[in-house]
Specification:
Layout: H1 15-30, H2 32-42, E1 52-56, H3 62-69, E2 76-81, H4 84-97, E3 103-107, E4 120-126, H5 135-145, E5 146-164, H6 169-183, H7 193-199, E6 202-216, H8 220-234, H9 240-256, E7 259-272
Helix pairs in contact: 1-8, 6-8, 8-9
Length: 274
């Protein structure tokens, strides 16, 4: 069985798998290792007081809600995702956090956004572009619905750099590659954006990269491993017993303080040129 990105094919997952991913997205959103990366680029969006913002592939709406909570944001944020259970969870979480009046969540396809041209001041894709079927189509859609001079913000990982320490280095490398292949449709897409963004009518105004690293203890990479390692087995990429041994080793290393994992993440801010 070929690897199938669970986010790309989320509408084919059973309820248990969907709940597991919802839990992962919410845990990730609360992890200080990860939230600082969103805060860094959110501060540079320079949103007008009445800003209209779209998050494409919003998942459970965690980043949209984070934006609504910011003291420097007083506009309206809309989140779109292809998964109805994700959208229903996003609506529920927004109600629980008291930001329902500033956010809206809808089911929709990133490849064919149901909005008129030039609707938004800013369009965000936060860990979306690595999962989609056709990145160039999504970029063009984001460029279409942002106003001229508006900002498109794309944040995602270079998952070919994803690595966990493992005593058997050869198998550890195989597992790193398998994890990236099983979890992400486009694990190297962030390397392509300098070439793809101009073709979509977007001019890069700022870009930077940061390594997410956990040494000794794991939180962000703990839930990543627990959530996505089973997809390596399901795809038949590595033997189940070997994957279970790898996962057990990761958990043990977190408990005894010898854990190590790392991945590079990149942010692009681009302006619609026409």
């Amino acid at each position: 069985m070929a690897a199938r990105d669970p986010h790309r094919y989320v509408n084919e997952l059973d309820a248990t798998a969907i709940e597991r991913i919802i839990a992962r997205l919410e845990t990730r959103a609360k992890d200080a290792v990860f939230t600082r990366l969103f805060d860094k680029y959110a501060e540079q969006l320079a949103l007008p007081p009445s800003a209209q913002v779209l998050e494409v592939g919003c998942g459970t709406g965690a980043m949209t809600r984070s934006l609504a909570h910011r003291s420097d944001f007083s506009g309206k944020a809309i989140g779109v995702d292809q998964s109805r259970p994700f959208v229903e969870a996003a609506i529920r979480f927004a109600q629980d956090e008291g930001v329902s009046n500033r956010v809206d969540f809808r089911v929709g396809d990133a490849h064919n956004l149901d909005f008129p041209p030039a609707t938004f001041d800013t369009v965000i894709a936060h860990t979306l572009i690595s999962h989609v079927a056709e990145p160039t189509t999504v970029l063009r859609e984001m460029a279409r619905v942002v106003r001229p001079g508006g900002t498109v913000a794309i944040f995602d990982g270079d998952y070919a750099s994803l690595t966990y320490a493992f005593p058997d280095h050869d198998f550890g490398h195989q597992m790193d590659v398998a994890l990236a292949s099983a979890t992400f449709n486009n694990p190297r897409i962030m390397r392509d954006l300098p070439r793809l963004l101009p073709k979509a009518g977007l001019e890069v105004t700022a870009a930077w990269g940061e390594a997410v690293i956990e040494i000794g203890r794991g939180s962000y990479f703990k839930t990543f491993a627990e959530t996505y390692a089973p997809y390596v087995t399901q795809a038949g990429m590595l033997p189940e017993a070997a994957v279970e041994d790898w996962l057990t080793t990761q958990k043990q290393s977190m408990e005894n303080g010898t854990f190590f994992a790392s991945c590079n993440y990149y942010t692009y801010l681009a302006r619609r040129t026409e």
